[in-house]
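Task 17 of the worksheet. Students: predict the tertiary structure of the chain below and write it out as structure tokens. Keep your answer in the requested format; marks are given for formatting as well as content.
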Amino acid sequence: DRVACLHNFLGGNAKYCRVEEGRAVRLDHPDVDAGELVALARSYVPAHQALHRVGPPVRKGDRVLVVGGSTPVGIACVQLGLIAECAEVYVAASPQERGPLVALGAVPVAANPGYWVDSHVYGQCDVLLVCPCTEDVGPYQCALRPGGKTVCVGFSP
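Model answer:
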């Protein structure tokens, strides 16, 4: 059987691994390619966890800023944030990355947090999602309201 699994300690794209049966999900949907199903799981599960399971869950009316919104997980965060009826889902993106994100319903902001001081995100966001996480998320945290949460998704050393 073709299966995929979600596990805290597995990384990369192993062709074979041994996991408990309860962590395996069959990939035998007749209308969807197995590779597409795995890609969905690798993008949307971390996005869902970042929005709803790490710290307080995102709520209707929250303002969310996604740094790295053009990554697969970033795109999933944008889509799931909009489904959760966030007031705004901002994306820090370069001009060439903005088109598809705006088409999804995201509001673009400068990729460099140094330009946020006079913007509508400075100190206004409830959630900051950094995809993939960088070693220093400090500069991005200027967008958060007091009590806002920062979630780093993945790590790219």
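Marker's comment: The longest strand covers residues 144-152. The two ends are 35 Å apart (CA to CA).
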